[in-house]
Amino acid sequence: MSPEAQQALNLFKNTNEHLLIVGQAGTGKSFLLRKMAECLAPHQSAVVAPTGMAALNCDGNTIHGLFHLPVDKYPYGIITRDSQWCRNVRNQPEFAGLETLFVDEISMVRADVLDAVDHVLRIQGPKPGQPFGGVRIIAFGDPLQLPPVETADHRPWFNGTKPDTWKSPWFFAARAWATIRFTTLELEDNHRQHEDPEFASLLRSIRVGDLKYDGHRSLLASLSRQIHDQDMALRVMCTNQQVDDHNNQRLHSLPGTLTTFTAYDRPLGKWVGETPVNREIHLKIGARVMLRANLEVGEGWVNGTIGRVVEIDPEAESVVIEDDAGKKKIVARHTWKRELSRPRANRPLDEANYCQIPLTLAWAVTIHKMQGQTASGPIVLEADNAFVGGQVYVGLSRVKNRHQLSLARPLRKNPEPEQRAMNFMKQIRPQHYW
User: Fold this and answer.
1) pLDDT for position 337
2) Given Cys at both, which of 9, 97, 243, 287 links 364, Cβ 3.0 to 4.6 Å?
3) CB atoms within 10 A of CB 414
4) Do residues 28 and 154 share a domain?
5) Can you give the pTM of this predicted structure?
């Protein structure tokens, strides 16, 4: 464990401070989160993340799932205080025993969502009326990676021009963020690219939008090339539409019969919002797939493992996949659980269950779904159409070294971080970002 990580762990154990743990890709933020969570009993803490994939990566729940936030309703918090949802919050005390809330991938948490969490905990937390209900917040992430999702419909709520709006969609624009004081620590020891220090140096420069060094520009330009196993490489793309088009084209080009697996919920209708994998999964023999559950960690069959479908048994509802080393694994239906209530004495835990084959097509995947993960094999990055700050950096930083990576096309412009995020980093870590 790096000195910075040990300092953060000591602060966590020996103080009651709220912590913001930041750091570039590959510095061990997820590892540190797990170490901290292990220090607490399950009923004392909760781990949440803004997306289903991020929640899988940190063995937690989605924010929407744990806090029962309405799906596709916005904005939350103060604006919705008179809504049916807010009245239900008052009727369902859930979080009286919660002491610590871990929030992973904080950069992707929208300001109104964080205010909604604060709203729930001020009513249902151990200290009603206090910020976050007196719950300690430990947030992890990197504001210089992916920002919160902000569609055109959202923008009027995040320009700060009207009462009850936010200055930006970023978590640090939440009203609740200003109500508590965070101690910020930055992890700097890069574990992911430590074997390729020149590539790691390039990534540091791209992360902060500083490509002044000729060597960095030359190295970036050299990545627009063919690599070994180019045809087998994972395509990492900017948009869902690109990914769906590429995966569907590759699937339909395969010979053989298409088999469809349909998900089901238990109890019916209890699982709302984002699902771990699609409700309908279409597969053929030869399809390239990614595992989306931890099945056998010791054997390497974990969330993110890539393989190829070699057998399909529709009657047994199972698939056999083979990894690049030739190892095979039977993959049957998997059940994901989502807590619909906090553990409390003398009351059964209310859960939603989602059951499906834990696979997604994996000739291509979005940069957003790769955040927090390390690619085990080669990737081809298509990022010339990047549309938000940090997107190129996240795509480039998924690999351990430059030899795993190819840029499908040269970048149209130098990658830059999102300026509001950069300003925030300058504010909290001025010695690092000026």
Assistant:
1) 80
2) 243
3) 14
4) yes
5) 0.87
Question: Which residues partner with 30 through β-bridges?
Answer: none
In this structure, the answer to whether residues 153 and 41 fall within a common structural domain is: yes
* Amino acid, res. 292: R
Rounded Cα distance, 415 and 241, in Å: 22
- Are 43 and 134 part of one and the same domain? yes
Residue 419: give the domain boundaries. 197-232+377-433
List the helix and strand counts (H, then E) for the chain.
13, 20
Taking alpha carbons only, the member of 181, 190, 242 closest to residue 391 is 242
Listed residues 318, 343, 365: the one ending a domain: 365
The pLDDT value recorded for residue 129 is 93
Last residue of a domain, one of 365, 390, 410: 365
Quick one: which H or E segment has residue 354?
strand 351-356
Sequence-distant (6+) residues with CB within 8 A of 172 are 111, 143, 424
Say if residue 251 is in the same domain as residue 267. Answer: yes
What span, in angstroms and rounded, lies between the C-alpha atoms of 3 and 26? 15
- The DSSP result for 78-137, as a single string, is GGGTTSHHHHHHHH----TT--EEEESSGGGS-HHHHHHHHHHHHHHSSSTTSGGGG-EE
> Do the bridges between strand 351-356 and strand 61-62 make them parallel or antiparallel, or are there none, so unpaired?
unpaired
Whether 109 and 171 share a structural domain:
yes
Q: What is the dihedral of CA 264, 267, 273, 279, to 10 degrees?
A: 0
Tokens of 83: 């809504």
